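Researcher: Re-running this chain for the archive, since the previous output was lost when a drive failed. Same request as before.
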Amino acid sequence: MTSYRILKHPILPIPTRREIKIYWQDRELSAYEGETISAALFAAGIRVFGEHAHDHSPQGIFCANGQCSQCMLIANGKPVKACMELVSPDLRLAPLQGLPDLPPVAAGPLLYERKEIEVPVLILGGGPAGLSAAIELGKQGIKALLVDDKHRLGGKLVLQTHRFFGSSSAVYAGTRGIDIATRLEEELRQYDSIDIWTYSTALAVFSDKKVGILREGSQYALVKPQILLVTCGAREKFLAFKGNTLPGVYGAGAFQTLVNRDLVRPAEKLFIIGGGNVGLIAAYHALQAGIGVVGLAEALPECGGYKVHKDKLVRMGVPIYTSHTILSANGDDKVESVTIARVNEKFKPIPGSEASFECDSVLIAVGLDPVNEFYRKAVDFGMQAYVGGDAEEIAEASAAIFSGKIRGAEIVRALGGEMEEIPQAWYTTSQILKSRPGKTVCKEVIPQLPSGVTPVIHCTQEIPCNPCSALCPNGLIFVDSDDIRSIPTYTGDSEACQVCKRCVAGCPGLAITLVDFRKNARTPVVAIPYEFTREQIQRGDEVLVLDTEGTPLGSAEVISVHGVARCDNTLVVEVRAPLEYATRIAGIRVQNNEITQPLDHYVEHIKDDMIVCRCERVTAGEIRGLIQKGYRDINEIKIVTRAGMGACGSKTCSAIIHRLFIEEGINSNEIVEGTKRPLFMEVPLGIFAGEDQPGGKPV
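Model: Regenerated structure tokens:
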């Protein structure tokens, strides 16, 4: 049986875990203790977990975050979310087919009083913002409870294997996200005043200023904080297109969870929709995991993410199709191909421009929405509430770290803690870290004379990032300390560089090479950053080298592959190249062209309409029809179609329904918003009743 586990990774260590046996439809499978059901099934090549009760469509992973019910299956006779439930020895699994049967209820279950707690500060979300805020509170000895729904702290940091951008002194720039998560958690756990609940989900904020929390999946607690801080991060936006609910269509977060946390390969050939940082970074993570990236489509004329991320991909062999959109994901019960088309200035597909590509997965990375419903409800009920990180404003994780630090300091002052006035410089730094990419200079600064050793900086866009200036032991790379969005420049001459190569290996964008003319000015040695396994490249190999824009320059012989002190896991590959293009070399192609070629025919999806509400299988055509009949109240649309009535609580379909109104020419002031559920997550009713909570006081 083929295993889809990642057994070797250039960045991530492969842990030793105890193997256990589980069963899928009476078929024995190997699983690892501590992993989720979904990870174990994906490792065995199982992608379809059941079928929808409405139309029997195949269902599989979508969010991998517990926010929907696409991965629902039967485990030991009970319906569970495969992405949130851990495996156990001899676990019996079966696909969910139709509505699950309710389990029998024993007569007269014991009911217990629910637990009520009062705390000075309650923090919802243990990602970069929540951790940073809690650290500020811990430093002052302020008691707080931090709640997170995952099994470990760090939020999306635990999925990020790349080095972070931003400020080296303020937010760990130059350090990998996975390592930042560990550092923040270790620092937080030093403070006894901070209580931490993992695997615990906030369910609702109530009018009596209490927050309902489901602790460890079975215990219900009401927490009444003096101050509530919401740092729940963001959720991904989605698109309506034909085939958008086929197994194999994922959000970027789900894909990165499977690859970088669960260490399984959910795809062999991946196509990405969306050219922001999330999509660009996910493509790089896929390549590192040995997954082919067929291409990336972005509707705008230029990618919205950092140019160094885009440049890194194109020179590794990933085609980027700007001014393109997805028309359909194609296949019967799973993704088999994707069809894209060029769009005009109004973002409408241009007939005749369609192209189809063979792939088994489509990753959707078209933006994020703040998870701020807890904050908004707290404000409605008059609670003293703060919001930070992506829940406040969508930005990079480095910005979320600093945002959390500021919120924590503000809460300390609000509680009368011994803290001086927050420096205005903190707020300035926060705004810089949140800033979008700025202008791009016309060309790279290339050394004029072929002598000595010179770093060539291929970073040509204004972004908030300065690790390169801190890496050079002689301070020869300059970034404006007052505004780290300035483009770095090398200030030394060809004799000043010590050839330590720390700038090459430590640049988060892999955007610095080192050209050494000392031994031979006609064929200098070029040092290139490389974040793939050593087995993939060897001394003596001939490699294709490319410039910043991905244009092939020629072949070059590899003369050395080695690491650099204090630059973990990033290798430096040295090649010998002709003088005429040595200074233009920016990278090495790691993926051949065969995987990226379009099919020789255009695949048109056979379905009649696209799904808007995944949970209830409501199509765009159904909703457009109601809008055309005069419906303007989303609550009425919900009653008629059930759109928004599913397990995710309209988290996915709400934005798409709004977009349908806009496409039909309806002004936003005519639309009546849908009423939000009092509970933001679904939960068994027995939990609220206090059923079977060991250790409680019987009613």
